[in-house]
Amino acid sequence: MDAIQKQLLEAVAGLHEIPVGAYNIRANGKSEGRNSTEHIEITTREEGDGIIIRIKDGTRKESVHIPVVMSQAGLEEVVYNDFYVGDDCDVTIIAGCGIHNGGDASSRHDGIHSFFIGKNSRVKYVEKHYGSGDGKGERIMNPETIIEIGENSVMEMDTVQIKGVDSTKRMTRAKLKEGASLKVMERLMTHGTQDAESRFIVDMDGENSGANIISRSVAKDDSRQLFQSVLNGNAACSGHTECDAIIVGNAKISSIPEITANSSDAALIHEAAIGKIAGEQIIKLMTLGLTEEEAEAQIINGFLK
Amino acid sequence: MLELRDVSFKVEEETKEKGILERVSFTLEDNKFIAITGPNGGGKSTLAKIIAGIEKPTEGRIYLDGEDITELNITERAKKGISYAFQQPVRFKGVTVLDLIRLASGENITVAGACQYLSEVGLCAKDYINREVNASLSGGEMKRIEIATVMARGTRMSVFDEPEAGIDLWSFQNLIHVFENMHREIHGSILIISHQERILNIADEILVIADGKLVSRGSKEEVLPALLEGVDDYSGCKIWKDGGVK
């Protein structure tokens, strides 16, 4: 792996070297390294590009790293990764995609991740997107996440896209069985002329299922963002979606929360707020000795932390 | 030493000019504790904002140790050692109490160091240090954190705008000690805007501002009795005595 790829790997997965546990590192469309463990098996798909990750029943306190790095301009790929998580598991899955584009042609990675989670399991899924390079070619990522959560299982999804991705269309669909819950924390920052869309569709089908979808975003310069969150309460369940966005410069942000109760026992809440940084927040930090620019950076950092 | 010389502040209101402050002059000597009191709407908070640089006076000058700071912005004044506690503290999503105290102290102080300031303002430090300074905190909690940030700055000039507002009676006695300690330990000047007799009692000097003017100043012995007896003269009741709103 070259220096640029290593740098991308560190940015998206915090990895300096080969990770502990199961992993698959994909660089410029090829597998750079793979490790299966006693409980976690990674195999190549027979149809289409991508991998299948099988996590056995009862796998606890283990992690899977599946970072993707691309440093070759003009590379476009569609990758399918399927995760089968058994019953009674407690695992952390760390995905991430870093694109370095120093050329004029667009680089694109569309990752389609499907999760099939069994009963009484807990899955933490962390995904970081990062772009670098000063070429004219766009860095494009279109992640799609399909989630099926089994009885009394919990999935926590933590996604971050802070820098360098020119265009993103994110789609997340989830179906929740009895007692299942989904928590999403999405953090997004766009600048320049970047464009980001993030849509969530969650079906709470089982009794006592619950979803909490939180998005915090900052749109700077002439960038554009769209956030849509659709919660369907099809049984006695509780759902909450919240979108908080800070707008800076000439950016544009749309927020479309949508909640539908198909059961009288569904309790659903949506909150959405878009606004500039409050002037008094800047003033408060200035009275502590920060300049206006430092104050703004501090407020944004805290907001996206 | 802080000196205000003929400071006036006017705002445009429906094409008419309205005077908020009119030729206010006073000096705050080093290591002195001044309390400013007077009726609501009299211009006290505007005066505090003018000292912090949040508002610019329409006329008059402000000097800090002889240097004209009238044109300096908020950051520049903060760096020169002026601290300001908001009457309504500002909330931040994602910024923790620890972050705020660290920003205030200007260095990466330890968690224990930051906790010390919280304890001094009567907050159980471990319950608060990692909390976000957001809407989950009550008004009284916010006020105490605000005071802690000013203490953490430890500058030679601190301005507090009604620090007692929203603080319960139980904590109030401690608050008095906080100001007494600050006065004693930091060796700085303190200017507090307050309506509380007990705060006025510990001040070296009391200034009364009403209708935008400095109407009296002196020691508590000189000012307090007249203030308490003649409450009506400074309150809205005066308008009724004068024959109602014209």
From TrEMBL, chain A:
One Pfam family in the UniProt entry? SUFBD_core
Q: Where is each SUF system FeS cluster assembly SufBD core domain found?
A: 85-303
Q: Which domain of life is it from?
A: Bacteria
Q: Which residues cross the membrane?
A: none
What InterPro entries does the annotation carry? Answer: Fe-S_cluster_assembly_SufBD (IPR055346), SUF_FeS_clus_asmbl_SufBD_core (IPR000825), SUF_FeS_clus_asmbl_SufBD_sf (IPR037284)
Q: Which PANTHER family match?
A: FES CLUSTER ASSEMBLY PROTEIN SUF, UPF0051 PROTEIN ABCI8, CHLOROPLASTIC-RELATED
Query: What family name appears in the similarity comment?
Result: Belongs to the iron-sulfur cluster assembly SufBD family.
Q: What is this protein called?
A: SufD family Fe-S cluster assembly protein
Q: Which organism is it from?
A: Blautia celeris
UniProtKB/TrEMBL annotation, chain B:
| InterPro entries in alphabetical order | AAA+_ATPase, ABC_AA/LPS_Transport, ABC_transporter-like_ATP-bd, ABC_transporter-like_CS, P-loop_NTPase
Provide this UniProt record's keywords sorted from A to Z.
ATP-binding, Nucleotide-binding, Transport
A Gene Ontology molecular-function term? ATP binding
Domain ABC transporter spans what residues?
2-236
> Would you tell me the protein name for this molecule?
ATP-binding cassette domain-containing protein
Its lineage reads: Bacteria, Bacillati, Bacillota, Clostridia, Lachnospirales
